[in-house]
What does this fold into?
Amino acid sequence: MTTLEGLAADGLDPVQQAFVEKQAAQCGYCTSGFIMTTKALLRQYPNPTDAQIAQALRYNLCRCGAHVEILQAVRRAAELMAHDDSDATGR
Ligand code: FES
It folds into this structure.
């Protein structure tokens, strides 16, 4: 099992990097859950459709309106992971 902190053991994980780039957090309370769910989604669907993203994140709630940025971050994470060979380790 990998924790949010474990994702960053060797520097920011591509999903974390994408959330930073897209400023996909306001309060930050929900961010850990969004990042871990995104990581699991992208392992299953490396290039997810919008419907797959919505389905995967349906139980992650953001009360402060960062949904647009979060969706942008998921798409950006998919791009970054497509070019990141280190993620083949399953980190
Ligand atoms: S960023 Fe956490 S609830 Fe919106």
Remarks:
- The helical segments are 4-7, 14-21, 31-44, 50-56, 67-82.
- The chain is about 55% helix and 0% strand.
- The pocket of FE2/S2 (inorganic) cluster is lined by residues 25-31, 62-64, 66 (CB under 6 Å).
